[in-house]
Amino acid sequence: MTDSIRTDFISHTFKGQRSPTLLDIDVTIRAGEQVALIGRSGCGKSTLLHMLAGLLLPTEGCVRIHGRQVTRPSEKWNMMFQKPSLYPWMSVADNVGLGLAFAGRKDPQRVAYLLELVGLSEKAAANPQSLSGGQQQRVALARSLATSPEVLLLDEPFSALDAFTRSSLQDEVSRIAREQNLTMVMVTHDIDEAVAMADRVLIMAANPGRIVGEIQVELTSPRQRATPEFSRQREALMTSFEQLVGGETTAAEEEEPEQAGKRKAA
Amino acid sequence: MDSVVNTAPASGKGGIEWAPLTRFLMARLAYPLAGIGVLLALWWLGGWVIANTPGTESFAGFAPGPTFARLGELLSSGEVWIAVVPSLERIGLGLLWAVLIGVPAGVAIGLFAALREVSHVPFQFLRMISPLAWMPVAVLAFDTWDAAIVFLVAVAAVWPVLFSSAQGVRRIDPLWFKVARNLGADGLQMLRRIIFPAIAQDIFAGIRLAVGVAWIVLVPAEYLGVTSGLGYAINDARDTLEYDTLAAVVVVIGVIGFVLDGVCVTLIRRFSWHEEA
Questions:
Q1: Do B224 and B156 fall within a single domain?
Q2: Which residue has the higher pLDDT, B209 or A16?
Q3: CA-nearest residue of chain B to A259?
Q4: Are residues A61 and A172 in the same domain?
Q5: Confidence of residue A262 (pLDDT cuts 50, 70, 90)
Q6: Is the peptide bond before B9 cis (omega within 30 degrees of 0)?
Q7: Among candidates B174, B183, B274 on the partner chain, residue whose Cβ is nearest the Cβ of A102
Q8: For B181-207, what is each residue's pLDDT tens digit?
Q9: Beta strand pairing call for A60-65 and A3-12
């Protein structure tokens, strides 16, 4: 197995802050591996994900994807956010094809294939505002997959959905990622979500944000949530998390990448 | 419109049911017609008072009767177009310049906070100067009267377009920028595919305000050296004591202004991506 993502001792300190948000993050993720980053709000997990996507540059260290240093977003890696953020002046199909349009190669057939993949073929011409939250997030998934990325980054993309939609989308994204042999890194604070989707879970602690441990999820896919094995994995992860991070809560700083993104766009 | 279409299938028992259509037309037209009626009544009353007050009888041409008679003549002879076409050309050119300058400047100010801070005081200062105060400057700066008038219209129209565009950009969801960047958009693509569609309705809302002020500025600006246009027609009618012509031109100005505003409202609706309630 080849390495897909490497981070070389990333540290990051936001402007105007004295203590680092991230300290010495050194992670290697294999191609095709599904990794979850879990931690409390404010541990810097979302900041780290933004760095993998090239939406934020670390003050020290660097991210490499397939040996190439990540300095900006690319069609080879793509991030899905908590909000679907579809563009309401475009049809569903145009939203899905946007990455391809930006890359200068429109491909209606690929768009049609992706809409079928997420089960929304009949909504191709619809306005995204007429879709439910779960459907919108499916469109966002199709949009992320349009340029055939090798890496899919998920920033709590299901946390705004109701429980039923959430678990069905978790299974669906997991299945699609495995079928397409995507490397997937997801950020979550939901232990169930981590166990349901990941091969490996990295546990992060805050102040400064660092990786304090990891745990392998020894389950086959697709995963059955109601089995004793699933519960055992869940228990194991919960126990490690509490041992490593403890029960204390930390100040929420998870909004940082949002603000940094806004500043950069502005 | 929609209600008319929707009532059609409901007329099940053979024959067309006129009642819903009539009710719809009443609801849509009753109030506007009442408003027009009140305005005409007041106008007629004013004309009657003028005609029956000793010393003002010579202004009786202002009354609705003579005005509409004269308006009919102006329309049938085609004379009205001699005044309307040059005015529309001037306002069109003035608005074009206002959009060409106002939209890019507004987008830039909306995007860059530093630019916004630097431009705030100068723009608010310039905005408060009556466009007509530029008249002497315009006359000196431009070779032709026409160009001077276009300049005055543009000076009046540029501010609403500029501020509305800037406001539109500032209201764009920051995540929309992030998602587009994440999908590999470069600067130009960001402008064309994200920023302009997102603020199109704000631009047209700005143009709507601009049309209002530009139309107001146009008439006094045409009192300048030109010998065509609606402003000139008013001045000319006053000099030749043709008060019915003067009032007819005023009606024409009002109607065209109303139509231009309607066009803007249609464009705002057309480019609005907000979900209809």
A1: yes
A2: B209
A3: B174
A4: yes
A5: very low
A6: no
A7: B183
A8: 999 898 999 999 999 999 999 999 999
A9: antiparallel
Answer yes or no: is B85 within a domain.
yes
Facing residue for A75 by CB, picked from B173, B184, B273: B184
Residues A19 and A4 in one domain: yes
Instruction: Identify the pLDDT of residue B169.
Output: 96
Q: Which residues of B touch A88 (CB under 8 A)?
A: 273-275
* Cross-chain residue pair A103–B189, CB shorter than 8 Å: no
Residues B250 and B209 in one domain: yes
Report residue B181 as tokens: 């960047």
Look at chain A and report how many structural domains it folds into: 2
Q: List, for residues B117-175, the tens digit of each pLDDT value.
A: 999 999 999 999 988 888 888 989 999 999 999 999 999 999 999 999 999 999 999 99
CA B51 to chain centre: 34
Q: ipTM of the predicted structure?
A: 0.83
Residue of B nearest to A55 (CA): B182
Give the mean pLDDT of A132-146. 92
